[in-house]
């Protein structure tokens, strides 16, 4: 059974865009996040885009690949993409794959905030 995901985007006063993701990031839901990333990067062109993953309950390799692709797309246009508040499951997946540092996450799960 595939999961569901809900994504909301908000722009802060300083121009930072925050994308909140809830639910699962898998083959059935990554299309919505891909569209959100593309629309935000090309329309808002933020200097910083924060993806909050506090309420992501599952993420498979498709979800990880999307985050990496989003990071690369953001970097190409001069936007810094960081992950904030990853759930324990997500943080473990990113540590296991060696990608935690790419997204500004600490190596341990005890501190889940990004480092500016």
The CATH class is Alpha Beta
Mean pLDDT: 88
Number of strands: 4
The rounded Rg comes to: 13 Å
Largest sheet: spatial strand order: 1-2-3-4
Order of SSEs: EEHEHEH
CATH homologous superfamily descriptor: STAS domain
CA distance, first residue to last residue: 37 Å
Under the CATH scheme, the architecture is 2-Layer Sandwich
Largest sheet: 4 strands, mixed
Instruction: State the low-pLDDT regions, or none.
Output: 111-116
By secondary-structure content and strand pairing, the structural class works out as alpha/beta
Query: What percentage of amino acids are in beta strands?
Result: 25-35%
Number of discrete helical segments: 3
Number of spatially distinct domains: 1
What would the CATH topology be? Transcription Regulator spoIIAA
Give the % helix: 25-40%
Principal-axes geometry comes out as globular
